[in-house]
Design brief:
Helix content is about 25%, strand content about 30%. The chain is an alpha+beta fold. The radius of gyration is 21 Å and the shape is elongated.
Length: about 220
């Protein structure tokens, strides 16, 4: 096997990734390869992905590859005002500043997968959330974004909004509900995450806080 290739980079994962992450990354890349018109005929790229997966899915081959390529987890020995946190979504090690306030901490995302690092911790301390499945019309303030999405849960100060494309962070949006046409909400996007295994076309999960509710 070739030791010159960085198989972790090919699969877009961290060297600490466990087998389930390796498998998930492989499937995602191959699915994207098949669906993307520009990559459909890229045989070399497909071979590189398959070669990387063949090595990294096998514990013994992976161990030999790591040893030959001097891949090791190096602890960050920076100043004491930083600490390290492993992302529970992708296993990437992130360096976090201890000087962040609570709001900044809430919005901190992983440097690898761009998912929120602290959302579960903070949301557990806030208002109760209620599961639902409501269709939502989403419209940005400048009318550049017009989408159909879903509300998957809500609380007294915000909701979780699913949409087919990512909506810009800090974007102000108008939310309308088909079955409640006289009611609408002006809200702000505070968090964006890509869903690993979406149930439908809504591939992006957004954290939303209410600004104003309106009844016509």
């Amino acid at each position: 096997m070739s030791m010159q290739k960085n198989y972790y980079r090919i699969l877009q994962i961290d060297p600490t990734a466990d087998p389930s992450i390796v498998k998930s990354a492989y499937r995602t890349l191959m699915l994207d390869l098949k669906s993307h018109p520009d990559h459909g005929g890229n045989i070399d790229y497909a071979q590189a992905i398959n070669e990387a997966y063949e090595i990294l899915k096998n514990p013994e081959k992976r161990k030999q590859y790591d040893k030959s390529n001097f891949i090791a987890i190096r602890k960050n020995k920076a100043q004491k005002q930083f600490f390290q946190l492993r992302c529970h979504h992708c296993n990437q090690i992130n360096t976090i500043s201890l000087t962040l306030n609570e709001t900044e901490m809430y919005h901190t995302i992983c440097t690898s997968c761009n998912k929120a690092l602290f959302s579960d911790f903070y949301e557990s301390r806030q208002y109760p959330r209620y599961k639902c499945e409501l269709n939502v019309y989403i419209q940005s303030a400048n009318n550049k974004v017009k989408l159909r999405g879903k509300c998957s849960n809500f609380s007294r100060n915000g909701m979780q909004l699913l949409a087919p494309i990512p909506i810009k962070l800090d974007e102000t949006v108008l939310l309308r509900f088909p079955h409640h046409k006289d009611f609408s909400i002006i809200a702000k996007i505070i968090r964006i995450e890509e869903i690993e295994n979406p149930q439908d076309k809504n591939r992006y999960r957004h954290g939303v806080v209410y600004i104003q509710a309106q009844c016509e």
